[in-house]
Structures are given as C-alpha cells and as structure tokens.
Amino acid sequence: MKTLKRFPAVDGSLGWYESMPVQRTHPVKQVTKNQYFDYIVVGAGFTGLSTAGRLAELEPDSKIAVIDALMVGQGTSGRNAGFIIDLPHNLDSNESSVLADTHIRELNCFAISRLDRIRQEQGDNVYWNQVGKYMAAHEEKHFKNLDSFTKTLDSINSDYEIVEGADLASRLGTGYYKKAVYTNGNVLVNPAALVVSVAKNLPNNVEIFEKSKVTSVDFNLKKLYFDNGVLTANTIILATNSFTEEFGGCKNKLAPVFTYASLTKPLNEDALHKFKKVSPWGVTSAHPAGTTVRFTSDNRILIRNSFDVLPDLLSNQKMIDEAKVHHRSSFMARFPSLDAIPFEYSWGGMLCMTMNHEPVFSESYPGVYAIAAMNGVGIAKGTYLGYYMAEMIKGNKSEDLDFILSNSNPSWVPPDPFKTIGARVRLSIEQRTAKGDK
Ligand SMILES: Cc1cc2nc3c(=O)[nH]c(=O)nc-3n(C[C@H](O)[C@H](O)[C@H](O)COP(=O)(O)OP(=O)(O)OC[C@H]3O[C@@H](n4cnc5c(N)ncnc54)[C@H](O)[C@@H]3O)c2cc1C
C-alpha cells in the first residue's frame, strides 16, 4: 500500500474554466462507496479522457471509471495556452530525424481530427479556431531559432510563410515582433471548454467521478483508496501527468515545471478599434523560455510566461501575483495603448517535462499502466497517446504503436534536491537569454 502526499489544487483563478461557453450536462459525482470497474483511469485531462474514450469504443460492454481530484477542466488540460499543435514542437529543439518528425505530425493531425469530430458531435462552442500559429521573435539574436524551425519544416515538406515588419504588425495588432514563421495547421481553443466537451462525449459505459482524489493505492490488489470509498479494477491507467511519481511509478523520470498565464477582460469598444481587421491569432516565442501570446475569439489577450520549480507541486497566491507582474510588463511591451485593459484571471499550471522530451508510456506494474510527461504539447500528444494506450492494453498492434513505444524512453533525472537545484539553474539561464522575448 502506498500513501500519496502531493495532490493537485486549483492554483489561482482559472481563466479558461471560468469564462468557458460550454455548459456541463451532468451533475458532479464523487466516489462515495466501494465499487468495481473493469478499467479505472485516474486523471480526467486530455490523456485520461482519450484513453477512456478509446477503451469504451473497443469494449462497449465494459465498466469504465474516470476519476479526478478536481473538476473536469480545472486540471492542467484546462489551464494551458490552448494551442493544438500539428507540427513537431520541441521546447528545446534537438536534432531529430525526418521520419520521426513526419510521424509525429501525422499523429498530431490524427489527434486534431479526433478532437474536432468530438466537439462537432457535441455541438459545443469551444472557440475552435483553425488559424495556424506564428513562431515569432522580437530580438534579432533569436532569428537563428526561426531558421532552425524552418529547416525542420523544409525537411518534412511542411508549408510556412515568413512574415515580417508592417505585414506582421497589421496581422497581429502589435508592432512588437520583428519576424515570424507562420504555419497554418495549428488550432486555437478554449482548452477547458474542449476538455469538458470531450468528457461529455464519453459513452454511457464510462462513469466520471470528480472532486475525488486517490489518497492511497495498493497495486497488488488493484485498489484505489479515497476519502469515502475504495475502487477496485481489473486494469488501472494513471494519466496523472506531474503527479504520476506519487503513485510509485516512473521514479526519477519527471521534471515538472510551473508556468503561469493571465487572461485579460474582453477588449472594450475603444480597444477593439485598434484590432480592426485583426483575426484571432496565437504566437509562440522563438525562444524556449519566451512568452506565449494569444488574441482570442472572445476578444481577450492571453499572456503565458514565467517558470518555477516547486517540489511540492503546488503554487501559491504570492507566486501567481509575481508572475502577474511579469505578465503585465510583457503585455505593456506588446500593447502599450491597451493600458486600461486589466487582467481578469491569473493562474499557474505544470508542464510535465522529461530530460530527453520522451513521454512515459508503459506498464508500471502488472495491470497498471502510466502515461505522463507531454513536454508542453499535451492536447494533441495526450489525445493520441491515450488512444494508443487503450490499443496497447487490448493487444492491438500497429506501426503507430510501435513508433510510440520506441520513442517513450524518458531518461533519468537525479532525485531531489539535485533535480530542483539543477532545474532552477537551467531555467534561470534560459529566462535570462530570452530577454526581450519574455
Ligand atoms: C500554462 C500552460 C500552458 C500550456 N500550453 C499548452 C498548449 O498551448 N498546448 C498544449 O498542447 N499543451 C500545453 N501545455 C501542456 C498541457 O496542458 C499538458 O501537456 C496537458 O494538460 C497534459 O494533459 P494530461 O491529461 O496528461 O494531464 P492533466 O491535464 O494534468 O491531467 C491529469 C489529471 O490527474 C489528476 N490527478 C492527479 N493526481 C490525482 C490524484 N491523486 N487523484 C485524482 N486525480 C489526480 C489531476 O487533477 C489532473 O486533472 C501547457 C501547460 C501549461 C501549464
């Protein structure tokens, strides 16, 4: 039996969740008694919901539970920047093979089409915008990162457009960026709305339990313990992202990093006047520690930057407030004429990283599987890894599954305190070199 010590919490005011246009259709159900399920998926983010969805398709008569400590949409899946990225996207670009990059793009596109079908079937407005994305640089010294990105795009025959100067400024409504690489396959969403829509779409043989945290586990007996009940399963899947180590699997593999986001109030008439002819857009930075920015289809601006390594896997209001100050300065640098527009929401969430950017995708104990560490691109990656985890559990073989298995070997990270010290030093160097792209 293992007792868990670290649990997910609502870190700040969750902007996407609070402002989402999608309505829940089912009441919140908690674990309140002892029950048996064929499959229990822990974690109701994109990864867990995708695993449950595919298991339900493959085994329509099985009893499946998805459980989460929080409400669907409050976890990291509902806190991210909402880019569903079609292209290979290493936060740190390493040498990677053309075949692997091509395969990753295909898997990402598969995930995008699956999510698109789901939200259309649900008829939910998740602010789905297939508007591509810009990878942009303010500082000339970061142009070399744009060049290395276009080299990867050339190698996999992916179209792109270089946009600069006045053209870029008129498309974005800010003259802050000097140069950008625009690619058209990315989709922008309200991620909390999308994850709720995915949960709503699960068939009737899947039961969702929310506000139900697993407090201890006995994997020999396949039992999960809660404050008010015990769930037993034939097969357990951990889709618990940065918390997966708590359950006893994947020791010394994960390096969770907090990052923060703020969302403004919708721009008022006066401010919108300056955004005339500007369509919703998303910018990721040419520097890995730079700022992500969006102009959303409900006329808000999102700013995401700042990093912290927090071994308790919890942030606090002071840290969120510090990040908000940083967000404000990034906002003002880009939109000096919008000084009257305040942030309405600010929150934190964890990027679950590994040293070599490969995810955890394995059987950790007999009958207990783990999927974790999406390395910053979990909407698409979590969706396809969840799908193929279900395929693997059912014994279905495919080239895609073989590819995933051969690229899911996260390298070793040192235990704490060395992990935290090392990560803090590295992040502080990265943030300093990002300079004006922060
Ligand atoms: C600010 C920010 C911006 C980001 N931007 C992007 C982006 O634009 N595009 C993109 O693709 N990715 C982005 N990411 C990364 C992305 O959000 C993650 O990769 C993704 O959410 C991972 O999904 P998941 O389902 O694997 O994990 P999660 O969404 O974290 O789901 C895991 C779930 O497990 C639950 N859980 C954990 N422990 C327990 C327990 N003991 N009992 C019960 N439940 C438990 C948690 O409550 C949680 O809901 C961003 C992340 C952050 C923080």
TrEMBL record:
All residue ranges annotated as the FAD dependent oxidoreductase domain in the record: 38-392
A Gene Ontology molecular function term of the record: oxidoreductase activity
Pfam families the record matches: DAO (PF01266)
Signal peptide: none
Gene Ontology cellular component list: cytoplasm
Keyword Oxidoreductase carried by entry: yes
Entry superkingdom: Bacteria
Record keywords, A-Z: Oxidoreductase
Entry-linked SUPFAM superfamilies: FAD/NAD(P)-binding domain (SSF51905)
InterPro entries listed in its UniProt record: FAD-dep_OxRdtase, FAD/NAD-bd_sf
Family matches, as PANTHER family: FAD DEPENDENT OXIDOREDUCTASE DOMAIN-CONTAINING PROTEIN, SARCOSINE DEHYDROGENASE-RELATED
Identification of the protein by name: Glycine/D-amino acid oxidase-like deaminating enzyme
